Amino acid sequence: MQNKTLILAAAALVATAVATGCATGPSPAELDQQALAMLKASFRDQGIATVDRLDQDLGQKACSSDKAPAEDVAKKIEADALASVKWPNGGQYVGDWREGEKLAQNGRGMTWTDKSAEPTANGANCYNCHEIDKKEISYGTIGPSLLGYGKLRDFKESEIKAAYEKIYDSHASFPCSLMPRFGANKVLSMDQIKDLVALLMAKDSPVNK
Amino acid sequence: MRRLVITTALAVASTAGFAQKSTADGIAEYRAMLADGNPAELFEAKGEDLWKKKRGPKNASLEQCDLGKGPGVVKGAWVELPRWFADTKRVQDLESRLLTCMETLQGLNAAEIAKAPFGKGEQANMEALAAWISAESRGAKMNLPQGHAEERRMYELGKRAFFFRGGPMDFSCASCHGEDGKRIRLQDLPNLTKNPGDGVGFAAWPAYRVSSGEMWSMQRRLNDCYRQQRFPYPGYASDVTISLGVYMGVNAKGAESIAPAIKR
């Protein structure tokens, strides 16, 4: 009787081991490595879009999952982002909102069909994701609506600076934000960012009408 | 044809304006009118011809090609791809499998076809074949197999590729396709991390694109996604594209395929 129980128990153990064995593929860490190798092997350079675009910094690597990064990692991303921000001389954050609107409308730049990666060749893509001027009905919804952005913030000086910072490096306020880090990644120049700040924060900008 | 479509679009746009209809209603109506007489049918007919025609150095047709359900079985094959193939020991999507068949059966050079530009020569033939083969599963439900360990591994790799952020704008597939109810400009974005519904996302490609007058296979759709993500260039039928197919296709299990669909 006791023997039989033992044998059954042993059989159950073996069955479990086999089942586990079958179900066990590569570990999550191994899959991470295999995915990186797969990406490296699958892409090639085309024009300005070279394969070094697959080399991730922390703000990309730690934000490449369906789960948010650990709190300490998020803090590090935030700190790195804040340190990356280059501020304009003399605290002049506000450019020309008319130029800002043109940039906001422009979704071009940085693809392999674009000739130059210089900021002058790039748009800011804003309307792709945000509502901005209520006259433009063709806007996306990945980001929040920016209607009345400056007015809602009482056109405060601190908010003007904060808007510059968010556009320069969105991760400084929102680690893993879906918004590109336009200044830090050299997509837009300081002057272009100032024009966008004007679009959001200038009293005469259509955003605040 | 092109002019007719444009006129239709204008008519819809102005009707929408006068009737004070919402933009979304106007677009839905425009799409419904487009679907009535989908030019994809022309590509389907060409694709069926190409499947049956003796071609290549071996002067053979593709009729003995095994798309996963046995040599020559086309019906229902599309909704089970990508899948594992024992002969190549790879998980393959429709296009990479067609390359295998074109090489082994017809003696064509798969590597050369993979390198050719979209929409021309053998690449145009690939698009026609994809149109016909997908049409043979129209109305069927997505049902990708996950029985083989490699199919499950490719799902996991596809998931990682989907969330992989890179390039100067930090985009991943998930930047646009990770949540419900989002848009870029007026374009609705399906959430591809789950089943987005019948005839949406993976279950809608290949598709005829009205704006360019072209038939796009899933390979071309993914290629243009990566262009807009500001990534480098994904190889045609490369593993990253196949793994993404597995990820999206498995997520879409049960969704009805309407491919080849029609897009703006």
CATH superfamily of the largest domain in chain A: Cytochrome c-like domain
**H and E string of chain A:** HHEHHHHHHH
- CATH architect. name of the largest domain in chain B: Orthogonal Bundle
Main sheet strand line-up of chain B: 6-5-8
Shape of chain B: globular
Terminal Cα separation of chain B, in Å?
Answer: 14 Å
- Coarse morphology of chain A: globular
CATH class of the largest domain in chain B: Mainly Alpha
Summarize the structure.
The complex is a heterodimer of chains A (209) and B (264). Chain A has 209 residues and is mainly alpha-helical.
Written account of the structure:
The complex is a heterodimer of chains A (209) and B (264). With 209 residues, chain A is mostly helical. Chain A folds into two domains: 2-68, no CATH class; 89-208, Cytochrome c-like domain (Cytochrome Bc1 Complex, Chain D, domain 2, Orthogonal Bundle), CATH 1.10.760.10. Chain A is built from nine helices and one strand; from the N terminus they run ααβααααααα. Chain A has helices at residues 2-23, 28-42, 58-61, 71-84, 97-105, 126-129, 149-152, 157-168, 190-201, and one strand spanning 43-44. The longest helix of chain A has 22 residues, at 2-23. Chain A is globular and about 60 Å long. The termini of chain A are far apart. Chain B has 264 residues and is mainly α. Chain B folds into two domains: 1-36; 38-263, Cytochrome Bc1 Complex, Chain D, domain 2, CATH 1.10.760. Helix content of chain B is 45%, strand content 9%. Chain B contains ten helices and eight strands. In chain B, strands 6-5-8 form a three-stranded mixed beta sheet. In chain B, strand 3 (182-184) and strand 4 (187-189) form a beta hairpin. In chain B, helix 3 (40-52) crosses helix 6. The two termini of chain B are 14 Å apart. Residues 1-19 of chain B have low confidence and may be disordered. Classes of the chains: A mainly alpha (209), B mainly alpha (264). The interface between A and B is large, with 49 and 46 residues.
